[in-house]
What we know:
By secondary structure, this protein is of the alpha/beta class. It has 3 domains: 90-350, Glycoside hydrolase, family 3, N-terminal domain (TIM Barrel), CATH 3.20.20.300; 364-558, 3-Layer(aba) Sandwich (Rossmann fold); 607-720, Immunoglobulin-like (Sandwich), CATH 2.60.40.10. It is 28% helix and 18% strand. The strands form 6 sheets. An 8-stranded parallel beta sheet has the order 9-6-5-4-3-2-1-10. The chain has a 6-stranded mixed beta sheet with strand order 11-16-15-14-12-13. The chain has a 5-stranded mixed beta sheet with strand order 18-26-25-20-21. The protein is globular, with a radius of gyration of 26 Å. The two termini are 47 Å apart. The model has no long low-confidence stretch (mean pLDDT 96). It binds alpha-D-glucopyranose (GLC). Residues 40-41, 60, 90, 134, 188, 267-268, 473 line the site of alpha-D-glucopyranose (GLC). Pfam families: Fn3-like, Glyco_hydro_3, Glyco_hydro_3_C. InterPro entries: Cellulose_deg_GH3 (IPR050288), Fn3-like (IPR026891), GH (IPR017853), Glyco_hydro_3_AS (IPR019800), Glyco_hydro_3_C (IPR002772), Glyco_hydro_3_C_sf (IPR036881), Glyco_hydro_3_N (IPR001764), Glyco_hydro_3_N_sf (IPR036962). Residues 641-710 form the Fibronectin type III-like domain. It comes from Virgibacillus pantothenticus.
Amino acid sequence: MNENKIKDLLRKMTLNEKIGQVTQLATPFFKGASDQGQITGPMKDINIPENMIQLAGSVLGASGAKETKLIQKQYLQDNRLGIPLLIMSDIIHGYKTIFPVPLAIGSSWDLQLAEKSATIAAKEAAVSGVHVTFAPMVDLVRDPRWGRVVESTGEDPYLNSVFAKAQVRGFQGTDLKHDHERVASCVKHFAGYGAAEGGRDYNTVNMSERDLRESYLLAFKAALEAGSELVMTAFNTVDGIPASGNKWLMRDLLREEWKFDGVVISDWGAVKELIPHGVAEDEAEAAAKALSAGVDIEMMTDCYANHLQSLIESNQIDTSLLDEAVMRILELKDKLGLFDHPFRGADEKREAEIVMCPEHRQVARELATKSCVLLQNKGGILPLHPTRKVGLIGPFANNNDILGPWSWLGAKDDAVTLYEGIMKKVPASKLVVANGCGIDTSCEIELAKAIDVAKQSDVIVLALGESSDMSGEAGSRANIQLPHVQLQLVEVLVELGKPTVAVLFNGRPLDLHGVVDKVDAVLEAWYPGTEGGSAIADILFGEVNPSGKITMSFPYSVGQIPVYYNNYNTGRPKGAINAQERYVSQYLDCPNEALFPFGYGLSYTSFDYSNFILSSDTITPDKPLTIKVKITNTGDVAGEEVVQLYVRDLVGEVVRSLKELKGFKKIYLQPGEEKEVTFMLTEEQLRYYHADLSFYSDEGKFEVYVGPNSRDVMALSFELRKTKGE
Length: 726
Ligand code: GLC
């Protein structure tokens, strides 16, 4: 349908039909929907008038080819102008085949596989009738107390940007109108949600515009450059104004500066939440503020439905604001081909063929192996030898709660537990299992069994972690250690003096005191998804050499938070020179650095970095720098290494990070093999926001680093020079 036809359609619409289009309701409100749709927020006090329910332009949480076709059919029967319903859902890390959680996918540093997982998720969702996914979530995160760090790819703006692009490409493909096995993406949560004070979900966010632009907005811009069709506004304030009522954020920045012309949808209830935020007196004012600020669709509250008509008819807001929102919604429906194909990709036969098919599960297993991070391996006790008897002990030993948050349509029963994964590797006589305790409950009998199992074993594999409801939305924790009963289990079992491995199932960097100082090896498995148990067993027994690297720092203690790699130096840095000095920036009882820094992860082999050279000691706007480094696999097994490139601007108009990730390469090396890795560094990559928010680079000295993580790096220097007047 071309633009004129859409404008014609808009002209034919009544005021109520337009108001319907800007309202989104959850599945239970729709005819033909089963009531187990995805409910992800408060359902209380929603008073949608009956006529508005029929007119609501989009639904969230519906899925299944048969069900969505029925909903669409019923909807079109009631729709005077034949405007199809838009079906949106949270397909965050898989539809039914569940991939590792995004914080795990980020740890893979594998953009191709990340894109592939989004493509598969889109395919499974599209044939099941979904049109739009509320992903990627691109919030930058520095506070592991926040439950939603699990949905992010981490603490670095550049890394989050390239993952955002990969996910949007995977979800959308290049032709949404005709490729009905893709879905439109909705980048979220715009903006700054990851900086909630105290890591407490929905809490206040306070930061300068420069911080926002330099760290938190980069990945949004990247997702929009990749073509994300929608943006979702966040719950939090941005400089004192809630995002969903923030005109600067949505109109000045998103529409005017970034030229975004897609659909903006509020997060669940965020329009009505302008009232408790204290910037709207009532629902009418909330509706007026949100629409004026630029929210096109109100998700799951009733301010638009109940008040836009009177606001427009009394000229408190101009009908043009409503028309522009409805126009964008109709254009999105047209971009998805819904006017010609209202059922779009929904196809029971295709659904049966491809959802959870072996090929998709294999990709989930491969991505899970690449997302696991080997944090410690004292004495090289990993990989395990199948002749040694394994005592698998812990609340996650045979637990299918490993899909993680936002895996709605994934079935835990489909998940391969760690026990099931190991069973495929060793004879039954070589595997004994016991829970030892619950996630956060103790049991004397279980503990006694665990001790007995441990005594029978040659090696103990502890399976520990957080239940999935200890992570994700509204899953903030003030104490980020493992539950106390699990630490007690570790304490008791390590007394036996046997080689002990801890496998962790969790959605955040944990305070690992009581684990890393007790056991020999630690494998961070996150929530590894449907094929989690198989993937972890592949690693434990050496069929796969772990290559994951964390993308969010693990603190020594929650007291350090926020601790992240790209911090500023301060005026009193604690360092080697003044290591004994008291009056420097430090704690009396804890190191400043992270226990495990951004980019950290071990391998079963070892890699040597040498021949680190620059093409010149200067860089200019038209003469990029070529950076080379030789990597040698000095161990006796093949493996992958993520070679990381960082830069430091030694002097800026404003303070500059000690390190900034500017590139990375994941390479595979056979034992003894060496490869020269080359990076290009341009003047553009050295630009930053100055005090007046202008964005450009300064002449001056820089350091450049390469290494296996953000701490253990080699350093060289160069200078940026500009011809006069640049
Ligand atoms: C939730 C989440 C958001 C999700 C939406 C719809 O409250 O904040 O990420 O996409 O509601 O489920």
